[in-house]
Task: structure prediction
Amino acid sequence: MAASVQLDEPARTPRVEEEEEASDDEEEHEEWRELYGSQLQLEVEPPLHDARDEGTADAWTERNPSLIRLTGKHPFNCEPPLARLMHHGFITPAPLHYVRNHGPVPRADWSSWTVEVSGLVSRPVRLTMDELVRDFPAAELPVTLVCAGNRRKEQNMVRQTAGFNWGAAGVSTSVWRGARLRDVLRRCGIMGLRKGRGALHVCFVGAEDLPGGGGGGGAKYGTSVTREWALDPSRDIMLAYAQNGEPLLPDHGFPVRVIIPGCIGGRMVKWLTRIVVTAAESDNYYHFKDNRVLPSHVDAELADAQAWWYKPEYIINELNTNSVITTPGHDEILPINAFTTQRAYTMKGYAYAGGGKKIIRVEVTLDGGETWMLCTLDIPEKPNKYGRYWCWCFWSVDVEVLDLLGAKEVAVRAWDQAQNTQPEKLIWNLMVCTLHCWFKVKVNVCRPHKREIGLVFEHPTQPANQTGGWMARQKHMETAAPGLKRSTSTPFIHTTDDKQFTMSEVRKHGSKDSAWIVVHGHVYDCTAFLKDHPGGADSILINA
Amino acid sequence: MAASVQLDEPARTPRVEEEEEASDDEEEHEEWRELYGSQLQLEVEPPLHDARDEGTADAWTERNPSLIRLTGKHPFNCEPPLARLMHHGFITPAPLHYVRNHGPVPRADWSSWTVEVSGLVSRPVRLTMDELVRDFPAAELPVTLVCAGNRRKEQNMVRQTAGFNWGAAGVSTSVWRGARLRDVLRRCGIMGLRKGRGALHVCFVGAEDLPGGGGGGGAKYGTSVTREWALDPSRDIMLAYAQNGEPLLPDHGFPVRVIIPGCIGGRMVKWLTRIVVTAAESDNYYHFKDNRVLPSHVDAELADAQAWWYKPEYIINELNTNSVITTPGHDEILPINAFTTQRAYTMKGYAYAGGGKKIIRVEVTLDGGETWMLCTLDIPEKPNKYGRYWCWCFWSVDVEVLDLLGAKEVAVRAWDQAQNTQPEKLIWNLMVCTLHCWFKVKVNVCRPHKREIGLVFEHPTQPANQTGGWMARQKHMETAAPGLKRSTSTPFIHTTDDKQFTMSEVRKHGSKDSAWIVVHGHVYDCTAFLKDHPGGADSILINA
Result:
């Protein structure tokens, strides 16, 4: 059905009411293909009916087969493989964009869809899609969307949270086109602030049938933003009907969704059906029970018992400043030899900030934060006319291979233009939103081939229930030997090619001089840890 | 001369051009005495001619005698005693407000003073003070000003920076009244963004004669903000001519200064004479050579050699999220006895954020960050109609005295509504602006009287060149015993009443069982450190 929709070029109709300086402004609307075209690699393999969707309400959908599913079969929540995401650069192909669905995907029809605007407005209206496209000037700009749970698996490794296992690819960038929410609200005559009838919040409601809300199904996803945000021209909030120049994909809210740049994805309601202007914030179940950052001492039980969900100060809206190492990738091997040690290795990754702030600095440390190397920044985006930045940027830095050989861990941190940077350590919270501590990659010595050594890089986690990652390994180690002190600084020397070992070979390493153990099918050399174990070396040796 | 000025009640003249919803808005201008009156304790001792100002260009001024001078005699830079600042609560009396002067205070006359508005405006103008008061609607609101160097002495203790020694009282709050910059710029017809003549920056120039800029004196203090900031109604930028209902004091910019809420003090030009709209940011010496946060590896030499001052990304504007413990105060003693141990001790302090963000959480830790107690917040301010907060707030938390007895250190961190919090550790930078790591107070056991024990609290530093503070003490210890490993977790047990010890008493503590040393007139018990000294216990014992 999406294929039957013809989107005109962005409308050039007269604008509703302009800012006072608008007549003097440059035409904001630029051809994004011209601006970002040199970096576009949007071609991907065709979507498929996935066997995992059979028997679910989403059986009619087609999806990119490479997406990593985070919550089993249904609902559909996924991220692309991190290397794949990076390969495409600044603009993510829509079929690879991460997805966060709370329930089944609505089967929508462009021609019959409407968005109702009601509540504290003097001229309520029900807009068709054609009206939305035709009657409002189109805004079109690239926006990075980030799930508030991006990187959450790192926190789940330390202590399970109420959220599922996002890796570091819960982030994607598209060029979104739509009508400005501000224009729509002014057209409908949003009421003022005067006492008693203060139009203070703008609520969004989606179309899907959801289990939440304590009822017997039929609840809708909904949330709200403040009036100030909704009307702020600098925030570029829009009702988007095109992604990268095409109609939205079903998973991304076809035919229309909210886009709120600089904000967590959870406020950007998909399959938008209603906009309601109200005096109070949204009373939707998902508005209160998701996307909150509660203090560390609040667990699920306490959150319910003491009504922490309803304390307004713990809502999250703007994204945190964050950065991730994408090169080296997980399990990437760098051979150490006469050739490689004379060259620099280029580390790379992404960074983003919230609220329109620019990333002004990214730094990498090889020594646990004692010293930092300044990275080169690649910021493809042009800021909006209010100076706001809505997209991720990329960083790179050349590191001497010999310095990597001497490092146990590499870590990255970003700074935004308000001088916010990332904390060193993870701060646990129940929902684990906005995880943004330093992204740390372990550097382990390995033996890629006989008579050759190399470095193998290990990310903190792998998404979903995939094994792998130093945090997962440490967690396994804790499970296998519960008394073992956690160490984040001493890497295990583990092989990258498990199949080289038969169990009889492993059995040879059962002494204090060389203690190997097998955990979840991986072989670990624990020799260096024998002295650290509070229960004594024997606690490991009985496993070896 | 200030006394001769009669400020009318805020003007109620028709506004220049209103926001589209303004007709519907509440009257913003409220009587601040009504709003904040219950907390006002603005009475202070009369100002004096200070002997330290004799022979300087400021000899004509009168100042509050309790202010702590940070840069010797001249220019005048000061902060109030921290306890004094806290005593006055939400609104700081103007005579106690911190002062950052770069040179002599201009002797200004209300009736002849003018502010010239020029550059990329279609109607340049030279405004008298009476015109500024009469011809523009007055805005009046409380704003917390913070010197970007607030708490800088903590960083100077670790490694000397290019800045002088601010304690934790480089912060004050006043009710400021003035004309909105936005109104003035629109009245003057600020030009647009179109190519070639883009009016992108608004520069401010002060009146004082300064040594900076490489010339032979006569330079003026100046800086700039972007057009977006200058015109943004939500930012409340004003040309202020009244502080707490009175004309400005000479030290605070009489007769008119810039106020930019949520921004570092360094952009708020005092004794304002010129506003120039330009295509490029200010070329003023002080705009580039101050208020920058450079990466840690950049020292003074490198900054000059590689022109780090001129890289636009390192400018600072918005304040960082910050919090400070003010109760217990430095050297405060809490006796430990049957009475006190059955009661809670109430810790208190202040917190602020930048850019209009609300402080949503303050937490205190007694165990180095393992667990955190949630504090009660007192936020006296009403946000502006855009939801922005411009003022500090206060926090308090009840702590069991027995828990304090078991703690070595208490620390505080705040969170703002964008989920930014403070880093644990200090991150060195050349200017040391925006220091905002956890504020840590050491808890030392002491003997306030014979046969009584107590806890004595020790702040990290004391302002200016005052001795005192655990960071200063550790620095002295390093100087006295250069090889000694720094410890921030193990407090020295030091007496609070040095006069109890004669040198002959100290000499008795020269063994491994009890090693006292004398550094800068203070007696320190180093027994616990003997085993830590990398040069061996003897390195300390030769001093003991």
Observations:
- DSSP finds twelve helices and 26 strands in chain B.
- Chain B touches chain A through 53 residues (CB under 8 Å).
- The first strand of chain B starts at residue 68 and ends at 69.
